[in-house]
Design a protein that fits this description.
This protein is an all-beta fold. The protein is built from no helices and 11 strands. The strands form 2 sheets. Strands 2, 4, 5, 6, 9, 10 and 11 form a 7-stranded mixed β-sheet that branches. The chain has a 4-stranded antiparallel β-sheet with strand order 1-3-8-7, with no helix packed on it.
């Protein structure tokens, strides 16, 4: 069993930055891709970013078009943690952000952290 706990959300103004963290516990996430999704009120959950596994703390990264060039996903395998650095935030980035892992053909989701961007 894997538990994912997000943190770092908050209320910011347009143009500000936030850094989200997702700490995994229960088992290591080494060897597995990690991702962030978000869900705005009244809308479906959507992909934001994904980072693949590599031997070090890096990995190939993939982003949804709306966040390319503004968001950066990274991971610290020693700390079993994945991050999402969000810069130049826009009001349309307002959503609950969820951490996701697909481990052993089972989906794991965190409880979400709220990000609100005011104009």
């Amino acid at each position: 069993q894997v538990q994912l706990v997000e943190s770092g959300g908050g209320l910011v103004q347009a143009g500000d930055s936030l850094r989200l963290s997702c700490a995994a516990s229960g088992r290591t996430v080494r060897g597995y891709d990690m991702a962030w999704y978000r869900q705005a009120p009244g809308k479906e959950r959507r992909f934001v970013a994904r980072i693949s596994w590599s031997g070090g703390s890096g990995g190939n990264t993939y982003y949804a078009d709306p966040v390319k060039g503004r968001f950066t996903i990274s991971r610290d395998n020693a700390k079993n943690t994945v991050f999402l650095q969000m810069n130049s935030l826009k009001p349309e980035d307002t959503a609950t952000y969820y951490c996701y892992a697909d481990i052993g053909l089972q989906d794991y989701w965190g409880q979400g952290t709220q990000v609100t961007v005011s104009s």
